Amino acid sequence: MSSPRLGIQGAINIPGNTSFPGSTSSMESNFQKTPNLTERNYLGFSDCSSVDSSSNVSTISEVNKNSLNLKATELRLGLPGSQSPERDQQNTLTSSEQLDEKPLFPLLPSQKIVVSGHKRVFTDTMDSCSETNGVISSQEPSTIKASVPINKVNSNPPVSKAQLVGWPPVRSSRKNILASSKNNEEVDGKPGPGALFVKVSMDGAPYLRKVDLRGYSTYQQLSSALEKMFSCFTIGQCGSQGGPGRGSLSESKLRDLLHGSEYVVTYEDKDGDWMLMGDVPWDMFIGSCKRLKIMKGSDAIGLAPRASEKSNNRN
Amino acid sequence: MKLLQQSMDPNQKRAKAVDRVDSVDTGVASFDSTRMCPFPDEVLERVLSLIDSHKDRSSVSLVCKDWYNAERWSRRHVFIGNCYSVSPEIVAARFPRIRSVTLKGKPRFSDFNLVPEYWGADVHPWLSVFATAYPFLEELRLKRMAVSDESLEFLATNFQGFKALSLLSCDGFSTDGLKAIATHCKNLTELDIHENGMDDLGGHWLNCFPESLTTLQVLNFASLNSEVSFESLEKLISRNKSLRVLKVNRNISLDQLQKLLLQAPQLSELGTGTFMQELISCPITDLKTTFSNCKNLVTISGLWDATSLYLPVIYPACVNLTFLNLSYATLRSGELSNLLQHCKSLRRLWLLDTVGDKGLEAVGAHCPLLEELRVFPADPFDQEVFLGVTESGFVSVSEGCPKLRYVLYFCRQMTNAAVATIARNCPDFTHFRLCIMNPGQPDYLTKQPMDEAFGSIVKTCPNLQRLAVSGQLTDRTFEYIGKYSKKLETLSVAFAGSSDLGMEYVLGGCPKLRKLEIRDCPFGNGALLSGLTKYESMRSLWMSACNVTMNGCKVLAKERPRLNVEVMKDEGGDGSEAHKVYVYRTVAGPRRDAPPFVLTL
Question: Does the global pTM surpass 0.80?
Answer without folding.
Answer: no
